[in-house]
Design brief:
By secondary structure, the chain is of the alpha+beta class. Helix content is about 15%, strand content about 40%. It has 9 helices and 28 strands. Strands 5, 6, 7, 8, 12, 13, 16, 17 and 18 form a 9-stranded antiparallel beta sheet that branches. Strands 3, 4, 9, 10, 11, 14, 15 and 19 form an 8-stranded antiparallel beta sheet that branches. The protein has a 5-stranded antiparallel beta sheet with strand order 1-28-22-25-24. Strand 12 and strand 13 form a beta hairpin. The protein is elongated.
């Protein structure tokens, strides 16, 4: 309690006097609050909160402007049912009107994506007697393998499948949502994925020079005959001469998984690509050779691309909770899920605000700290799946960030949302509402609802927030069940207020 009050007094100091005072007038910020509020009687009091589920209709914007990372996979569990993620993207050549050479034949084609992986959990295999290419060059091959970062059941295999897209996906300004459907054409390839990716380095024995290498990536083999007919045999055609023609000729690809349960992993969409390996006739001094070359096709900018998410909530408790959501009296359990799943809202009842206003009027209290504390519901959510570590926290119908971010950003280690005991059951979260509550109680601001969703606000490389609409909600797969408004439970959602009186 003492340490909590110390932290609260620091925050209250900033709200009352501003961050300039905090840094310019007192070198020891840890003691500032105690000095400012010397002689004050500090009190901590709990107030009930109305919390309720919000149905986001399992839909969220997932086009290129939103997806810094692209989810792929499937995961099923009892509370939320099944969630699947596929990925759709246009494809563009790195060069238009390509020339492949005489008698060009595609050896192979591969779709390359780069998932997030655990760089500290590598395993290495070395082949000292490797023979490189058809020339059998003596070489050494080193393969380093890494597990991808997964959300869900780690010990499952997935079948990745790539299809051609049959619909024109539009222009770069196209806005897409996670429920956008597309017609599919031919299957282009598939891969049994064991959950690991690898990097490869091949060096020449004679001088240790690099013969071939690739970064850690997931490589899905594609149909050589398809790209022979679609691309190489079309050399010189109008379809390959410019971007507008190409994206209407080869309209894109879709990556999906067959399974309904396993895990969701994420990759960086900007560096995804298709690589064609082909040979052609090269004549020099009357001698014909067939060297191998590559042509690359990007799935990155400025291609239209988006995530496709589907849900099956049959018999899952979240379905009944969303159907009966009650924003007037509150819901006993809150189901919160990323990638377009539900969020929750909460409101400090007017009756509780009236109590605080009376204390402010009669007892001259000063609100020094206010947090909404909400616990995970260990009765139905006691799994080892990673709990959310961050949330997007705004007022309902927001037109900007909460006032806490500007009022308290100078406080060392300030966080709008803090997570505690995430490896335990129950864990809990605290949402800072100090400035919002002060404005309601002391300045007659409107008592508005708050809205919470899984995700985080995006920041620039210099840690500047990019805007209240810029967040990671579209690609964070975590979910959790929280204790809502339930008078029978001691760990129900509550407002915790620390105030001072003199």
């Amino acid at each position: 309690m003492i340490s909590t009050i110390k932290n609260i007094t620091k925050i209250a100091s900033v709200i009352a006097f501003g961050s300039v005072f905090l840094y310019s007038c007192e070198p020891e910020a840890d003691n500032l609050g105690e000095q400012l509020f010397s002689g004050a009687q500090l009190n901590e009091e709990n107030f009930d909160v109305i919390a309720y589920n919000i149905n986001n209709n399992d839909t969220i914007r997932t086009d290129a402007s939103e997806l810094s990372l692209a989810p792929l996979g499937a995961f099923s569990e009892a509370s939320f049912g099944t969630q699947k993620a596929a990925y759709v993207s246009q494809v563009r050549p790195m060069e238009y009107n390509p020339v492949f050479g005489d008698n060009a034949v595609v050896d192979s084609a591969v779709l390359v994506i780069k998932p997030l992986f655990a760089s500290d959990s590598s395993s290495v295999t070395t082949d000292e007697n490797y023979l490189y290419s058809e020339e059998n060059i003596p070489a050494k091959k080193v393969v380093t393998s890494y597990p991808v970062l997964k959300y869900g059941k780690h010990n499952r295999d997935l079948t990745l499948r790539v299809h051609e897209v049959a619909d024109f996906l539009g222009g770069a300004e196209q806005m897409s949502f996670s429920n956008r459907a597309v017609a599919l054409g031919a299957e282009l390839g598939s891969k049994a994925f064991k959950g690991r990716i690898s990097s490869t380095v091949i060096t020449k024995d004679s001088d240790n020079s690099n013969l071939w290498s690739n970064d850690a990536s997931l490589r899905i083999p594609l149909s050589a005959s398809f790209f022979q007919q679609k691309i190489v045999d079309a050399e010189g055609s109008a379809d390959l001469k410019d971007a507008a023609s190409f994206i209407r000729y080869f309209r894109g690809v879709r990556i999906s998984v067959d399974e309904n349960d396993g895990y969701i992993f994420r990759f960086t969409p900007t560096n995804a690509e298709i690589v064609l390996y082909y040979k052609y006739d090269k004549v020099e001094n009357g001698t014909t050779t067939r060297p191998q070359l590559t042509k690359k096709f990007t799935l990155g900018d400025p291609n239209v691309r988006f995530g496709q998410y589907t849900f099956n909530r049959t018999d899952a408790p979240v379905s009944a909770a969303l159907a009966s959501s009650n924003s007037v009296t509150g819901d006993s359990r809150l189901f919160v899920q990323g990638m377009g799943g539900p969020g929750f809202g909460f409101r400090i009842p007017d009756s509780e605000i009236a109590v605080l206003k009376e204390k402010f009027s009669k007892d001259k209290i000063g609100i020094m700290g206010a947090k909404i504390r909400v616990y995970t519901d260990e009765t139905i959510w006691n799994s080892n799946y990673d709990k959310p570590s961050a949330f997007v926290f705004l007022q309902k119908d927001a037109t900007g960030f909460l006032p806490e971010l500007s009022a308290l950003s100078a406080v060392p280690n300030f966080s709008l949302v803090s997570a505690f005991d995430l490896k335990k059951n129950p864990a809990y979260y605290e949402f800072t509402v100090t400035k919002s509550l002060k404005d309601i109680v002391e300045s007659e601001a409107a008592n508005k609802d708050f809205v919470v969703n899984v995700g985080a606000f995006k920041s620039s490389e210099t840690n500047q927030l990019l805007g209240y609409r810029a967040d990671t909600r579209s690609f964070v797969p975590n979910r959790v069940v929280l204790v809502g408004t339930d008078a029978s439970r001691a760990n129900r959602i509550q407002l915790k207020v620390i105030y001072g009186t003199k």
